[in-house]
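Hi all, posting the design record for the shared folder.

TITLE: backbone redesign
STEP: 1 of 1
STRUCTURE INPUT:
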């Protein structure tokens, strides 16, 4: 090598350094491979344990699926970073890359992140579950699916309504399925001059004989308002949640039938007009 201007001592040093570097790289690769397989084995065991824990703890498949997938991503991301750091890649580089990527993704997906956060809140705090009847965002229906970004409702006329979880988590939700009993409220108008006591007795008799109406709290009937065209009677009856609406509709029909039998009029809106005949009055006075 001296003919190229490189002495034997220099080549020996370069050779020794090359051997050292090669050994160092080989050791790092071997260590990275060992870390990869050991970490993969540990992650598999941890994920199996997490899966069994979630199945025993909760029967919410949407939340379980999300938590399992999120933890899995975190575990494998940590393993990936660990492998690269063993190979000699600085950890600060990953922090910078992940920070920039997170900022860009956050700016691009603001609405989706809001829905994502809302989905976490709904799945975590459970204001409603699949099968519940809720009123939300102007819609009434049965909860069909709860996903991370959207909640699916089936209305009673068989329409599917898809509501973003972001707006759903930040608005009022009426859950009609959490309580075993509900109160039905009926408003009945009768004509002026009607015997209110008789009308109340007829209504009470209808619901006292209805097995779906609860005895406690007892049915309540009272004169509620002096309307423009009618005396307004309010009727409040408690029933099981599943039987409330059938009882309500049957009760309205029974009230109408019984009122017809007893000659009680249910009036329509009407106005009394007083006409002042000024011209006719002036002619009579002149004559």
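Okay, here is what came back for every position:
SEQUENCE:
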């Amino acid at each position: 090598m001296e003919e190229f201007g490189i002495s034997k001592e220099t080549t020996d040093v370069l050779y020794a350094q090359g051997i050292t570097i090669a050994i160092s790289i080989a050791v790092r690769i071997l260590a990275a491979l060992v870390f990869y397989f050991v970490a993969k084995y540990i992650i598999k065991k941890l994920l199996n344990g997490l899966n069994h824990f979630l199945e025993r703890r909760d029967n919410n498949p949407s939340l379980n699926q999300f938590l399992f997938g999120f933890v899995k991503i975190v575990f494998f991301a940590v393993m990936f970073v660990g492998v690269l750091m063993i190979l000699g890649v600085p950890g600060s580089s990953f922090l910078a890359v992940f920070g920039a990527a997170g900022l860009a993704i956050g700016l691009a997906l603001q609405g989706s992140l809001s829905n994502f956060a809302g989905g976490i809140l709904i799945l975590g705090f459970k204001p409603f579950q699949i099968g519940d009847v809720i009123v939300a965002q102007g819609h009434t229906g049965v909860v069909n699916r709860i996903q991370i970004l959207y909640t699916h409702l089936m209305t009673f006329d068989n329409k599917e309504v898809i509501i973003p979880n972001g707006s759903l988590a930040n608005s009022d939700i009426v859950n009609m399925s959490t309580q075993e009993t509900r109160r039905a409220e009926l408003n009945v108008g009768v004509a002026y001059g009607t015997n209110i006591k008789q009308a109340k007795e007829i209504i009470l008799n209808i619901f006292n004989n209805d097995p779906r109406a609860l005895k406690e709290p007892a049915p309540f009937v009272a004169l509620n308002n002096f309307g423009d065209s009618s005396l307004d009677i309010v009727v409040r009856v408690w029933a099981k949640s599943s039987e409330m609406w059938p009882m309500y509709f049957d009760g309205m029909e029974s009230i109408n039938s019984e009122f017809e039998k007893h000659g009680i009029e249910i009036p329509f809106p009407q106005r009394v007009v007083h006409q002042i005949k000024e011209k006719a009055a002036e002619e009579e006075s002149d004559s």
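COMMENT: DSSP finds eight helices and eight strands in the chain.
Let me know if anyone wants the other runs.
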